[in-house]
Amino acid sequence: MSFNDFDGVVIPAAVEVPYSRQPGAGNTGDLLARAFGLLIEKSGLSPRQIDGLGVASFTLGPDHAIDLAWRLGLSPRWCMDDCHGGASGINLLQHAIRAIQHGDANAIALVSGDRFEAADFRQLVEHYNLTTRTWLRPLQNGGPNSVFAMLTQRHARCHGLTRSDYGAVCIAQRAWATQNPQAVYRTPMSLADYLEAPPVADPLGRFDCVPVVSGANAILLTRADLAAGVPTVRVRALQCLYNADHQEGDGLTTPLASISGELWRQAGFGAADVDVVSVYDDYPVMTLVQLCDLGFAPDGDLRALISRLGTRALAVNTSGGQLSAGQAGAAGGMHGLVEAITQLRGAAGERQVKSATRAVVSGYGMVEYRFGMCANAVVLERT
Predict the structure, then answer these.
(1) DSSP-H helix ranges across the chain
(2) Residue among 35, 124, 37, 111 at smallest CA distance from 80
(3) What is the pTM of this model?
(4) CA separation for the pair 267, 233 (Å, rounded)
(5) Does domain 120-211+231-382 have CATH number 3.40.50.620?
(6) Residue 199: is the preceding peptide bond cis (ω within 30°)?
(7) Which SUPFAM superfamilies does UniProt cross-reference here (predicted)?
(8) Fewest beta carbons less than 10 Å away: which of 213, 244, 282, 375?
(9) What pLDDT sits at residue 2?
(10) Which residues of the chain register pLDDT less than 70?
Protein backbone atom coordinates (compact mmCIF):
# COMPACT_ATOMS: atom_id res chain seq x y z
CA MET A 1 0.00 0.00 0.00
CA SER A 2 1.01 3.64 -0.41
CA PHE A 3 0.04 6.83 1.38
CA ASN A 4 -2.70 7.25 -1.25
CA ASP A 5 -4.67 4.64 0.70
CA PHE A 6 -5.53 7.43 3.17
CA ASP A 7 -6.40 10.08 0.59
CA GLY A 8 -9.63 12.03 0.82
CA VAL A 9 -9.61 12.29 4.63
CA VAL A 10 -8.02 15.08 6.67
CA ILE A 11 -7.73 16.16 10.31
CA PRO A 12 -8.70 19.84 10.66
CA ALA A 13 -8.83 20.06 14.47
CA ALA A 14 -7.58 18.42 17.67
CA VAL A 15 -8.16 19.62 21.24
CA GLU A 16 -7.45 18.81 24.86
CA VAL A 17 -9.59 19.62 27.88
CA PRO A 18 -6.99 20.80 30.43
CA TYR A 19 -5.91 17.94 32.66
CA SER A 20 -6.37 18.28 36.43
CA ARG A 21 -5.12 16.36 39.44
CA GLN A 22 -8.47 17.11 41.11
CA PRO A 23 -11.48 15.56 39.39
CA GLY A 24 -13.79 18.53 39.90
CA ALA A 25 -17.57 18.43 39.57
CA GLY A 26 -19.51 16.43 37.04
CA ASN A 27 -18.73 13.07 35.48
CA THR A 28 -16.79 11.54 32.61
CA GLY A 29 -19.58 12.30 30.17
CA ASP A 30 -19.28 15.98 31.05
CA LEU A 31 -15.54 15.93 30.27
CA LEU A 32 -16.12 14.25 26.92
CA ALA A 33 -18.88 16.75 26.13
CA ARG A 34 -16.48 19.62 26.90
CA ALA A 35 -13.93 18.11 24.53
CA PHE A 36 -16.57 17.81 21.82
CA GLY A 37 -17.64 21.42 22.35
CA LEU A 38 -14.05 22.65 22.04
CA LEU A 39 -13.64 20.59 18.88
CA ILE A 40 -16.74 22.13 17.29
CA GLU A 41 -15.62 25.63 18.28
CA LYS A 42 -12.16 25.11 16.83
CA SER A 43 -13.28 23.45 13.60
CA GLY A 44 -16.02 25.87 12.62
CA LEU A 45 -18.38 23.01 11.78
CA SER A 46 -21.82 22.76 13.33
CA PRO A 47 -22.84 19.77 15.46
CA ARG A 48 -25.35 18.85 12.74
CA GLN A 49 -22.45 18.22 10.36
CA ILE A 50 -20.95 15.58 12.68
CA ASP A 51 -22.34 12.24 11.56
CA GLY A 52 -19.81 9.94 13.21
CA LEU A 53 -18.69 9.48 16.82
CA GLY A 54 -15.94 7.30 18.33
CA VAL A 55 -15.40 7.07 22.08
CA ALA A 56 -12.68 5.61 24.32
CA SER A 57 -13.09 5.73 28.11
CA PHE A 58 -12.63 3.51 31.14
CA THR A 59 -15.06 5.39 33.40
CA LEU A 60 -17.90 6.42 31.06
CA GLY A 61 -19.74 3.19 31.90
CA PRO A 62 -22.51 2.23 32.23
CA ASP A 63 -22.90 4.67 29.32
CA HIS A 64 -21.46 4.02 25.87
CA ALA A 65 -20.78 5.96 22.68
CA ILE A 66 -24.46 5.96 21.74
CA ASP A 67 -25.45 7.39 25.13
CA LEU A 68 -22.91 10.17 24.67
CA ALA A 69 -24.21 10.81 21.14
CA TRP A 70 -27.69 11.34 22.62
CA ARG A 71 -26.31 13.75 25.22
CA LEU A 72 -24.52 15.69 22.48
CA GLY A 73 -27.63 15.85 20.30
CA LEU A 74 -26.02 13.80 17.52
CA SER A 75 -27.66 11.33 15.15
CA PRO A 76 -24.55 9.53 13.86
CA ARG A 77 -24.44 7.21 10.87
CA TRP A 78 -21.24 5.69 12.31
CA CYS A 79 -20.70 5.02 16.02
CA MET A 80 -17.88 3.13 17.78
CA ASP A 81 -16.82 2.24 21.31
CA ASP A 82 -13.14 1.43 21.82
CA CYS A 83 -11.43 -0.48 24.61
CA HIS A 84 -7.79 -0.51 23.51
CA GLY A 85 -6.41 1.75 26.26
CA GLY A 86 -3.15 3.36 25.18
CA ALA A 87 -3.71 2.14 21.62
CA SER A 88 -7.27 3.48 21.44
CA GLY A 89 -6.56 6.78 19.72
CA ILE A 90 -4.86 5.26 16.69
CA ASN A 91 -7.30 2.37 16.59
CA LEU A 92 -10.24 4.81 16.42
CA LEU A 93 -8.36 6.85 13.83
CA GLN A 94 -7.88 3.82 11.57
CA HIS A 95 -11.56 2.88 11.62
CA ALA A 96 -12.76 6.47 11.22
CA ILE A 97 -10.64 6.97 8.10
CA ARG A 98 -12.10 3.86 6.49
CA ALA A 99 -15.63 4.90 7.44
CA ILE A 100 -15.24 8.27 5.71
CA GLN A 101 -13.56 6.77 2.66
CA HIS A 102 -16.39 4.28 2.23
CA GLY A 103 -19.14 6.87 2.67
CA ASP A 104 -20.35 5.76 6.09
CA ALA A 105 -19.80 9.27 7.46
CA ASN A 106 -18.55 12.68 6.34
CA ALA A 107 -17.27 14.16 9.61
CA ILE A 108 -16.29 12.04 12.63
CA ALA A 109 -15.47 13.26 16.12
CA LEU A 110 -13.22 10.99 18.19
CA VAL A 111 -13.28 11.67 21.93
CA SER A 112 -11.48 10.01 24.80
CA GLY A 113 -10.99 10.69 28.48
CA ASP A 114 -11.73 9.83 32.07
CA ARG A 115 -12.63 11.45 35.36
CA PHE A 116 -10.99 9.75 38.33
CA GLU A 117 -11.83 9.82 42.00
CA ALA A 118 -9.31 7.83 44.07
CA ALA A 119 -11.75 4.93 44.28
CA ASP A 120 -12.30 5.00 40.51
CA PHE A 121 -8.61 4.55 39.78
CA ARG A 122 -8.23 1.74 42.30
CA GLN A 123 -11.25 0.00 40.78
CA LEU A 124 -9.69 0.29 37.32
CA VAL A 125 -6.30 -1.05 38.41
CA GLU A 126 -7.68 -3.98 40.39
CA HIS A 127 -10.30 -5.01 37.82
CA TYR A 128 -8.51 -4.07 34.61
CA ASN A 129 -9.34 -7.42 33.09
CA LEU A 130 -10.34 -10.86 34.28
CA THR A 131 -6.72 -12.01 34.54
CA THR A 132 -5.81 -9.06 36.76
CA ARG A 133 -8.88 -9.47 38.93
CA THR A 134 -8.41 -13.22 39.34
CA TRP A 135 -4.64 -13.62 39.69
CA LEU A 136 -2.94 -10.29 40.51
CA ARG A 137 -5.43 -8.50 42.74
CA PRO A 138 -5.29 -11.20 45.48
CA LEU A 139 -1.49 -10.77 45.58
CA GLN A 140 -1.83 -7.02 46.23
CA ASN A 141 1.01 -6.60 43.78
CA GLY A 142 0.67 -2.84 43.43
CA GLY A 143 -0.74 -2.79 39.94
CA PRO A 144 1.22 -1.72 36.86
CA ASN A 145 4.01 -0.05 38.86
CA SER A 146 5.35 -3.42 40.02
CA VAL A 147 5.02 -4.94 36.54
CA PHE A 148 6.96 -2.13 34.87
CA ALA A 149 9.50 -1.97 37.70
CA MET A 150 10.48 -5.55 36.85
CA LEU A 151 10.53 -4.69 33.14
CA THR A 152 12.77 -1.69 33.84
CA GLN A 153 15.17 -3.92 35.79
CA ARG A 154 15.36 -6.35 32.86
CA HIS A 155 15.80 -3.53 30.35
CA ALA A 156 18.56 -1.90 32.41
CA ARG A 157 20.51 -5.16 32.63
CA CYS A 158 20.12 -5.81 28.92
CA HIS A 159 21.37 -2.36 27.86
CA GLY A 160 23.69 -1.47 30.74
CA LEU A 161 21.58 1.52 31.83
CA THR A 162 21.31 3.16 35.25
CA ARG A 163 18.59 5.08 37.04
CA SER A 164 20.22 8.29 35.82
CA ASP A 165 19.69 7.20 32.21
CA TYR A 166 15.96 6.74 32.75
CA GLY A 167 15.95 9.98 34.70
CA ALA A 168 17.39 11.78 31.68
CA VAL A 169 14.30 10.74 29.69
CA CYS A 170 12.00 12.17 32.38
CA ILE A 171 14.07 15.36 32.60
CA ALA A 172 14.00 15.88 28.83
CA GLN A 173 10.23 15.53 28.75
CA ARG A 174 9.83 17.81 31.76
CA ALA A 175 11.80 20.48 29.89
CA TRP A 176 9.16 20.35 27.15
CA ALA A 177 6.41 20.46 29.79
CA THR A 178 7.73 23.75 31.19
CA GLN A 179 6.64 25.24 27.84
CA ASN A 180 3.20 23.60 27.91
CA PRO A 181 0.71 25.64 29.97
CA GLN A 182 -1.62 22.61 30.20
CA ALA A 183 0.91 20.16 31.72
CA VAL A 184 0.27 19.28 35.35
CA TYR A 185 4.02 19.07 36.13
CA ARG A 186 5.71 22.24 34.83
CA THR A 187 8.48 22.86 37.35
CA PRO A 188 11.94 22.22 35.81
CA MET A 189 13.46 19.00 37.13
CA SER A 190 17.12 18.26 37.80
CA LEU A 191 18.76 14.86 38.04
CA ALA A 192 18.97 15.34 41.81
CA ASP A 193 15.21 16.02 41.94
CA TYR A 194 14.59 12.83 40.01
CA LEU A 195 16.92 10.62 42.06
CA GLU A 196 15.71 11.98 45.42
CA ALA A 197 12.01 11.49 44.66
CA PRO A 198 10.18 8.98 46.89
CA PRO A 199 10.62 5.37 45.73
CA VAL A 200 7.61 3.52 44.31
CA ALA A 201 8.85 0.09 43.24
CA ASP A 202 12.57 -0.51 42.72
CA PRO A 203 13.96 1.03 40.53
CA LEU A 204 10.98 3.32 39.90
CA GLY A 205 10.53 6.58 41.77
CA ARG A 206 7.68 9.05 41.75
CA PHE A 207 8.71 10.73 38.50
CA ASP A 208 8.92 7.41 36.63
CA CYS A 209 5.17 6.97 37.06
CA VAL A 210 2.51 8.98 35.25
CA PRO A 211 0.46 11.37 37.39
CA VAL A 212 -3.17 10.26 37.31
CA VAL A 213 -5.40 13.11 36.16
CA SER A 214 -8.89 13.80 34.88
CA GLY A 215 -9.28 15.20 31.38
CA ALA A 216 -10.24 14.53 27.78
CA ASN A 217 -9.01 14.84 24.20
CA ALA A 218 -10.79 15.00 20.87
CA ILE A 219 -9.90 14.81 17.17
CA LEU A 220 -12.00 15.66 14.13
CA LEU A 221 -11.72 13.82 10.80
CA THR A 222 -13.59 14.97 7.72
CA ARG A 223 -13.79 14.54 3.98
CA ALA A 224 -11.07 16.74 2.51
CA ASP A 225 -13.54 19.00 0.70
CA LEU A 226 -15.26 19.91 3.99
CA ALA A 227 -12.01 21.43 5.31
CA ALA A 228 -11.07 23.51 2.27
CA GLY A 229 -8.98 26.55 3.22
CA VAL A 230 -8.22 25.26 6.74
CA PRO A 231 -4.75 24.03 7.82
CA THR A 232 -5.08 20.28 8.05
CA VAL A 233 -3.10 17.13 8.73
CA ARG A 234 -3.38 13.83 6.83
CA VAL A 235 -2.38 10.27 7.55
CA ARG A 236 0.57 9.03 5.51
CA ALA A 237 0.88 5.54 7.01
CA LEU A 238 -0.78 3.49 9.74
CA GLN A 239 -0.02 0.02 11.07
CA CYS A 240 -1.41 -2.05 13.97
CA LEU A 241 -0.54 -5.38 15.57
CA TYR A 242 -2.19 -6.82 18.64
CA ASN A 243 -1.30 -9.74 20.92
CA ALA A 244 1.89 -10.42 19.00
CA ASP A 245 3.65 -12.59 21.60
CA HIS A 246 0.71 -14.00 23.59
CA GLN A 247 2.40 -12.74 26.80
CA GLU A 248 5.33 -15.10 26.23
CA GLY A 249 7.97 -12.48 25.28
CA ASP A 250 10.37 -10.65 27.56
CA GLY A 251 8.77 -7.22 27.17
CA LEU A 252 11.93 -5.63 25.76
CA THR A 253 10.21 -5.07 22.43
CA THR A 254 6.63 -4.27 21.49
CA PRO A 255 4.65 -5.26 18.38
CA LEU A 256 5.97 -1.99 16.89
CA ALA A 257 9.20 -3.83 16.12
CA SER A 258 7.27 -6.12 13.78
CA ILE A 259 5.31 -3.40 11.99
CA SER A 260 7.78 -0.50 11.79
CA GLY A 261 9.34 -1.70 8.55
CA GLU A 262 5.98 -1.72 6.76
CA LEU A 263 5.03 1.58 8.42
CA TRP A 264 8.03 3.40 6.94
CA ARG A 265 7.68 1.62 3.59
CA GLN A 266 4.08 2.74 3.45
CA ALA A 267 5.06 6.30 4.40
CA GLY A 268 7.73 6.50 1.74
CA PHE A 269 10.41 7.78 4.12
CA GLY A 270 12.09 6.72 7.36
CA ALA A 271 12.45 7.58 11.02
CA ALA A 272 15.21 10.08 10.26
CA ASP A 273 12.78 12.13 8.17
CA VAL A 274 10.21 13.03 10.84
CA ASP A 275 10.22 16.26 12.85
CA VAL A 276 8.07 15.29 15.84
CA VAL A 277 7.68 12.01 17.72
CA SER A 278 5.00 11.05 20.24
CA VAL A 279 5.37 7.66 21.91
CA TYR A 280 3.15 6.28 24.65
CA ASP A 281 5.08 7.00 27.84
CA ASP A 282 3.44 5.48 30.89
CA TYR A 283 7.01 4.78 32.10
CA PRO A 284 10.37 6.04 30.77
CA VAL A 285 11.42 2.51 29.86
CA MET A 286 8.49 2.37 27.44
CA THR A 287 9.60 5.60 25.79
CA LEU A 288 12.96 4.00 25.03
CA VAL A 289 11.53 0.63 23.98
CA GLN A 290 9.13 2.19 21.47
CA LEU A 291 11.71 4.60 20.07
CA CYS A 292 13.98 1.63 19.42
CA ASP A 293 11.17 -0.41 17.89
CA LEU A 294 10.38 2.48 15.54
CA GLY A 295 13.98 2.68 14.34
CA PHE A 296 15.33 5.71 16.22
CA ALA A 297 18.33 3.78 17.57
CA PRO A 298 19.37 1.62 14.60
CA ASP A 299 22.83 1.04 16.09
CA GLY A 300 21.38 -0.02 19.45
CA ASP A 301 23.16 2.80 21.31
CA LEU A 302 20.52 3.85 23.83
CA ARG A 303 22.73 6.37 25.60
CA ALA A 304 23.23 8.21 22.31
CA LEU A 305 19.46 8.14 21.83
CA ILE A 306 18.90 9.53 25.33
CA SER A 307 21.41 12.29 24.61
CA ARG A 308 19.43 13.27 21.51
CA LEU A 309 16.33 13.63 23.67
CA GLY A 310 18.14 15.95 26.08
CA THR A 311 19.54 18.18 23.34
CA ARG A 312 16.25 18.16 21.39
CA ALA A 313 18.03 16.80 18.36
CA LEU A 314 15.05 14.46 18.45
CA ALA A 315 11.78 16.14 19.47
CA VAL A 316 10.00 13.45 21.51
CA ASN A 317 6.81 13.94 23.55
CA THR A 318 6.86 17.69 23.13
CA SER A 319 3.84 18.19 25.41
CA GLY A 320 5.91 16.75 28.24
CA GLY A 321 4.32 13.41 27.54
CA GLN A 322 2.10 11.69 30.04
CA LEU A 323 4.99 11.64 32.52
CA SER A 324 4.65 15.41 32.93
CA ALA A 325 1.36 16.37 31.26
CA GLY A 326 -0.57 13.60 33.01
CA GLN A 327 -2.47 10.45 32.10
CA ALA A 328 -6.23 10.96 31.89
CA GLY A 329 -7.09 7.29 31.58
CA ALA A 330 -8.06 6.36 28.03
CA ALA A 331 -7.21 9.91 26.93
CA GLY A 332 -3.58 8.78 27.17
CA GLY A 333 -4.13 6.95 23.89
CA MET A 334 -5.07 10.21 22.18
CA HIS A 335 -2.85 12.72 24.00
CA GLY A 336 0.20 12.10 21.78
CA LEU A 337 -1.94 12.29 18.65
CA VAL A 338 -3.38 15.66 19.68
CA GLU A 339 0.11 16.99 20.42
CA ALA A 340 1.50 15.83 17.08
CA ILE A 341 -1.44 17.34 15.20
CA THR A 342 -1.03 20.59 17.14
CA GLN A 343 2.66 20.70 16.21
CA LEU A 344 1.99 20.01 12.53
CA ARG A 345 -0.64 22.75 12.44
CA GLY A 346 1.95 25.16 13.90
CA ALA A 347 -0.18 25.83 16.97
CA ALA A 348 2.05 24.60 19.81
CA GLY A 349 3.06 28.03 21.05
CA GLU A 350 6.32 28.29 22.97
CA ARG A 351 7.15 24.61 22.44
CA GLN A 352 6.54 24.68 18.69
CA VAL A 353 9.05 22.64 16.70
CA LYS A 354 10.23 24.86 13.87
CA SER A 355 8.95 23.93 10.40
CA ALA A 356 7.39 20.67 11.62
CA THR A 357 5.80 18.88 8.66
CA ARG A 358 5.97 15.18 9.57
CA ALA A 359 5.30 13.25 12.78
CA VAL A 360 5.06 9.69 14.00
CA VAL A 361 2.84 8.67 16.91
CA SER A 362 2.69 5.31 18.68
CA GLY A 363 0.10 3.71 20.91
CA TYR A 364 0.72 0.96 23.44
CA GLY A 365 -1.48 -0.54 26.12
CA MET A 366 -3.93 -3.04 27.55
CA VAL A 367 -1.56 -4.86 29.89
CA GLU A 368 -2.79 -8.40 30.40
CA TYR A 369 -0.71 -9.48 33.38
CA ARG A 370 2.83 -8.93 32.12
CA PHE A 371 2.96 -6.61 29.10
CA GLY A 372 0.77 -4.57 26.79
CA MET A 373 -1.12 -6.53 24.18
CA CYS A 374 -1.81 -3.64 21.82
CA ALA A 375 0.54 -1.49 19.75
CA ASN A 376 0.03 0.71 16.73
CA ALA A 377 1.65 3.67 15.00
CA VAL A 378 0.66 6.38 12.56
CA VAL A 379 2.72 8.73 10.42
CA LEU A 380 1.14 12.16 9.99
CA GLU A 381 1.93 14.93 7.54
CA ARG A 382 0.93 18.57 7.28
CA THR A 383 -1.05 19.15 4.09
Answers:
(1) 28-43, 65-72, 88-101, 118-126, 130-131, 144-159, 163-177, 191-196, 256-267, 284-293, 302-311, 321-325, 332-344
(2) 111
(3) 0.96
(4) 14
(5) no
(6) no
(7) Thiolase-like
(8) 244
(9) 45
(10) 1-4
